[in-house]
TrEMBL record:
Pathway: Carbohydrate metabolism; erythritol degradation; Carbohydrate biosynthesis; gluconeogenesis; Carbohydrate degradation; glycolysis; D-glyceraldehyde 3-phosphate from glycerone phosphate: step 1/1
NCBIfam families linked to this entry: tim
SUPFAM superfamilies: Triosephosphate isomerase (TIM)
Primary location class: cytoplasm
Top EC class, one word: isomerase
Subunit structure: Homodimer.
InterPro entries: Aldolase_TIM (IPR013785), TIM_sf (IPR035990), TrioseP_Isoase_bac/euk (IPR022896), Triosephosphate_isomerase (IPR000652), Triosephosphate_isomerase_AS (IPR020861)
Source organism phylogeny: Bacteria, Pseudomonadati, Pseudomonadota, Alphaproteobacteria, Rhodobacterales
The protein's name in its UniProt record: Triosephosphate isomerase
UniProt entry tagged with the keyword DNA damage: no
EC number: 5.3.1.1
Catalytic residue positions: 93, 163
GO cellular component: cytosol
Length: 247
């Protein structure tokens, strides 16, 4: 059975006071809770791991450097993230790809550096609005899968998040048919490259304007194993119902 996962990406939002939302989330977790990961800004990682102690909530970072250490002012290595007690890291988020000009090759290296520190990499892929409108989605996704996923990927070291860029933070969500089409395609591609045992177990998340009122619709897709949630993960009152919809 594939594990289900709800991951919250706080992006560049929140200070120590925001950890009250993590505290509040604890009491909203359903009995048969799926895996839950909160990815706060880096300065909050250690405090978040302390706040999550004794619960099933795991903590992740939003990015890591591809090198283990060195002269990279302002960057954070995977080892440093693991040292806070965090166990996940998002790599290749479209905001990093765009604002920091990260390419598939960089994402692949970051995933490997995450693994070297025993972190699970949440590898993000997704097409632009232009590619979506030109019906290029599957070609773009095929290219990103080929370029961003390292050959040594396993269901325990990696989670894949499909996030159409045009759906992130916009309130626009693909139709269920579109979500099904892309997620089925991703699972097929992984089967071809890694074999059925890997493909059947690797969690595939959908990301892009997931909210309490559309989560159940999205989770109907057989090959959607959870969500990567931005805005609606900031408040326990929003993220809790999304987690419950997955349970
Ligand atoms: C994200 O940042 O990964 C994301 C999906 O954001 P939102 O849920 O706000 O669209």
């Amino acid at each position: 059975m594939r594990r289900k996962l709800a991951a919250g990406n706080w992006k560049m939002n929140g200070t120590a006071a925001s950890l009250a939302e993590l505290e509040a989330l604890k009491s909203l977790l359903p009995a048969d809770t799926p895996d839950v990961v909160i990815c706060p800004p880096a300065p909050l990682l250690f405090r978040a791991t302390q706040a999550a102690k004794g619960t099933s909530i795991r903590i992740g970072a939003q990015d890591c450097h591809m090198q283990a250490s060195g002269a990279f002012t302002g960057d954070i290595s995977a080892d440093m993230i693991a040292d806070t007690g965090a166990t996940y890291v998002i790599v290749g988020h479209s905001e990093r790809r765009e604002a920091h000009e990260e390419r598939d090759r960089d994402v692949r290296k970051k995933a490997k550096s995450a693994w070297a520190a025993d972190l699970t990499a949440i590898i993000c892929i997704g097409e632009t609005l232009e590619d979506h409108e030109a019906n290029n989605t599957l070609d773009i996704i095929a290219g990103q899968l080929a370029g961003s996923l390292p050959g040594e990927m396993t269901p325990t070291n990696t989670v894949i998040a499909y996030e159409p860029i045009w759906a992130i933070g916009t309130g626009k969500v693909p139709t269920l048919d579109q979500i099904v089409e892309v997620h089925d395609f991703i699972r097929e591609r992984i089967t071809t490259r890694y074999g059925a045992p890997v493909a059947e177990l690797i969690p595939l998340l959908y990301g892009g304007s997931v909210k309490p009122d559309n989560a159940a619709m999205i989770f109907q897709a057989e090959n959607v194993d959870g969500a990567l949630v931005g805005g609606a993960s900031l408040k326990a009152a929003d993220f809790g119902p999304i987690i419950s919809a997955l349970a």
